[in-house]
Amino acid sequence: MLDAIKFEHTVFALPFAYIAMVLAAGGWPGGWTLGWVTAAMIGARTCAMATNRVVDRLIDARNPRTAGRHLPTGALAVWELRLFAAAGAALMFLAAFMLNPLCLALAPLALVFLVGYSYTKRFTWTSHWILGFTDGIAAAGGWIAVRGAFDAPAFVLWFTLTVWIAGFDVLYACQDVDVDRAQGLHSVPARFGIAAALVTARVNHVLTAAALALLGWLAGLGLLYWAGWLAVLGLLAYEHALVSPRDLSRLDLAFFNVNGYIAVIVLVAVCAGLYL
Q1: How confident is the model at residue 254 (pLDDT cuts 50, 70, 90)?
Q2: Count of C-beta atoms within a 10 Å radius of residue 147
Q3: What is the pLDDT at residue 253?
Q4: Phi/psi of residue 249, each to 5°?
Q5: Which terminus of the chain faces fewer neighbouring Cβ atoms within 10 Å, N or C?
Q6: CA 45 to CA 137: how far, in whole Å?
Q7: Could you list the residue range(s) of the whole structural domain that residue 151 is in?
Q8: 42 touches 5 (CB < 8 A)
């Protein structure tokens, strides 16, 4: 079941929820907050991905790259993933209740995005940014879990996640251009072509770097943060060097490995930058 929802991809957004908590608290946020934010993230991610698999099951069955997934092959039933999605949503709401009133009040809105983003590629090529915005809720949630209110760094983190994830989702969609066009699905590569998509992804990741710089300035982070920021710049450049309009063979390396490293490096850099 965990393989069906790609549970390991939680590494993309979860570190940013922790970053928001650490910055909001000015250090250790406390075990209670850490535990319930982690639970909320696990629940939200489970709900979103299980829903996505159900919503996209017919599309996946017609795509050679995804036809081997659990629903198209019959390894899992639709009702099983729907139950898993409901359990994830319930865990997210419980965690929000245990954190503070603002978290609970905003949980239904978060659920709308967690469930709704799976439908967006059916009608708009901006679906990449809607996905990024949805994942960015993790950072906003981590901040308000500590403060019970929004502040400027929370919005900067939200923007950072939006453009970072949109950038590498645009890259990832390059491998499905022909299938997306055949099925009438919308994406930047399908609408504008692979070359334009790669430029779009680069622009988004330039904005990511700029947003991380703004975050460091707003939070007054120290030298170690800026060392991590330079490492992230290097990884973003490496990610884009791996792919070209003529060669997408290393796209999985760019998508999974490099972006996982980036999320962890930013978390470590923020924690270190609070003290040095």
Answers
A1: low
A2: 18
A3: 63
A4: -65, -25
A5: C
A6: 11
A7: 7-273
A8: no
In DSSP terms, 244 is beta-bridged to 247
Single-letter amino acid, residue 205: H
* Sign of the alpha-carbon dihedral angle for 143, 149, 150, 153: negative
SS3 assignment, position 244: strand
Kindly state the average pLDDT of the residues 170-174: 93
> Six-digit token pair at 189?
């590569």
Number of domains in the chain: 1
Residue 67 domain flag: yes
CATH number at residue 259: 1.10.357.140
Residue 3: pLDDT over 70: no
Q: How far is CA 5 from CA 41, 119, 240, in A?
A: 14, 17, 26
| Under 8 Å between Cβ of 25 and 70 | no
Torsion of CA 258, 207, 10, 88, to 10 degrees: -160
Residue 2 lies in a domain: no
